[in-house]
Amino acid sequence: MASVSIRNVRKSYGTVEIIKGVSIDIQDGEFVILVGPSGCGKSTLLRMIAGLEEISGGTVAIDDRVVNDVPPKDRDIAMVFQNYALYPHMTIADNMSFALRLKNTAKSEITAKVERAAGILGLGPLLGRFPRQLSGGQRQRVAMGRAIVRDPKVFLFDEPLSNLDAKLRVQMRTEIKEMHQRLKTTTVYVTHDQIEAMTMADKIVVMHDGIIEQIGAPLDLYDNPANMFVAGFIGSPAMNFIPGSIGGDGFTTEGGDRLPLGGRVPAASDGRPAVYGVRPEHFRLADDGMAAEVVVVEPTGSETQMVLRPLGAKAGREDRKRELTWVLRERTGAKPGEVVRIAPDPALAHLFNPDTGLRL
Amino acid sequence: MSRPLRKLLDKAGMAVCVLLLVSPALLFFIWMLSLSLKFEIDNGAYPPILIPDRFAWKNYTTIFEGNSFLLYFWNSLIVTGAATLFALVVGVPAGYGIARMKAHKSAVVIMIARMTPGLSFLIPLFLLFQWLGLLGTLWPQIIIHLVVTVPIVIWIMIGYFETTPMELEEAAMVDGATRWQIFAKVALPIAKPGIVVAFILSVIFSWNNFVFGIVLASRETRTLPVAVYNMLSFEQVSWGPLAAAALVVTLPVLILTVAAQRQIVAGLTAGAVKGG
């Protein structure tokens, strides 16, 4: 177990800078998830921690030892790859014990460690098989077993669940979290799936275009996003962004509707343009709310999602982004074309600067 | 048109196409077989006879009686075996290195060695081997066959290693393997089908090579293709024994290819890195 300290790390390929100075402190035993859209540099950052990519600037330290020039084999880390990367010519037992055999570990110790890991992951009956004889979920477990057997300082996961089907992904998510609670090994996990990040992480690092947008606990990011990117990225369905301006004690949308601010008016902001952010579940029916036409109703059983078009806004294709999403816990008889009146909960709404994207 | 009939016609059309495509190779082979089993009188007959009334098994026995055929067979085995073995020992790591370093320029340089016509460097090399006192041994032929076998092995292995997933080697790197351990314990075992292909092609090219043998071989160090050529005499061409000898020369390579083909197919399906 170990801490990982990333200090002002940069990565460039030629003149193209992929990671533009990133600093993260990872405590001993912490489960940290790097999340962001494709191409944000999260996988590259993970590979730099692993030693598979050279570091162009800054330092990476594992347990206070700078490892910039330490080859992967001497970093005492274990990595789980997206494609599992199981050695196809070795049995499951051999796959799991490969690292130990390279270190000339005693046979009895190898057997004990492999059996312990196989026990944790339920791989016992599969030890004699080859990777090609296993299903996707089983292979994923073997890849994790290979990491557990090592008993490394840090676990690194590179989008380990993206090759699995939806149901298995949810199951493996729980298993990985359980495994971490049991072993308490420092873990860095990369994913583009914010649900994975929300459900598993102790700490989430939201990355975008090679920089860190925000670091924080999952619910902290959800409740207090630092900017519009984080607000829009975390949470599904995504937060509604309504452009307009602040005036008096409220917010006026471009369509002319009034939205409440609950007295949280930023200073010196009369008439100032702003973006009103409200999560889909933070609307409620209100007689004095804004009128909106129901466009689509999507019942999922446990909840209902509704796409609404504010009547203040002109209908048309370019107004698609003005459409709002509303999530209700209860079932509804609303039909497309009906008009409902809804109001956001001002205590849970956010205001953003439309130019910088920062929260006001 | 009814459906079964249509299907039948489709199949027949396919069969005709396949026959047309393979006929040059196949007919050539069948004719060689026919020649090797006919007496001289039948071989010259017009219209040509495909299946003779009497089989001339004698053609096969004469090649083993008259010439030192077994010696030449042994020579061929040594030259091809040594040249292929050495090519694999050098070429597989070289192919791996070039593929991983993306050193495509050095790959081109190696290809140039293969493209240069053999005759352009045969004579200087002949003088060199004479000066070294190696003529009369199999060494000159083994060494010069490397010009054929090494590039083949390297090029096939470059192509193969470029397709093997990098993630496996990265996994081994993280698992604590050194460069050589990664090569020996991960890259090499996975590349087995590629190595088999390289081995077979190297054997075929080396086994059938004629030019190097005719220049460098003495009476005792002839390889099989040269020996077959020497069956053509000035007075007459005895087609029967010649065809029989050619068939015997082809046989080992043929058997090897057929035997190893299964290995190649089995190897291709064994990879399986991704799910599904």
TrEMBL record, chain A:
Keywords: ATP-binding, Nucleotide-binding, Transport
Claim: RNA-binding is one of the keywords in the record: no
Keyword Transport belongs to the record: yes
One term of GO molecular function: ATP binding
The ABC transporter domain, residue ranges: 4-234
Pfam families with a match to the protein in the record: ABC_tran, OB_MalK
Family affiliation: Belongs to the ABC transporter superfamily.
Protein name, as recorded: Sn-glycerol-3-phosphate ABC transporter ATP-binding protein UgpC
Native organism: Azospirillum melinis
Underlying gene: ugpC
Automatic annotation (TrEMBL), chain B:
Pfam family, one: BPD_transp_1
Cellular compartment(s): Cell membrane
Signal sequence, renumbered to the chain: none
Keyword hit for Ribosomal protein: no
Keywords: Cell membrane, Membrane, Transmembrane, Transmembrane helix, Transport
CDD domains noted in UniProt: TM_PBP2
Transmembrane portions of the chain: 12-33, 72-96, 108-132, 138-161, 195-217, 237-259
Gene3D superfamilies: MetI-like
Membrane protein topology class: Multi-pass membrane protein
Residue ranges constituting the ABC transmembrane type-1 domain according to the UniProt record: 73-260
Sections of the chain in a coiled coil: none
Key word Nucleus present: no
Main localization, broad class: membrane
Family: Belongs to the binding-protein-dependent transport system permease family.
Protein name, UniProt field: ABC transporter permease subunit
Species assigned in the record: Azospirillum melinis
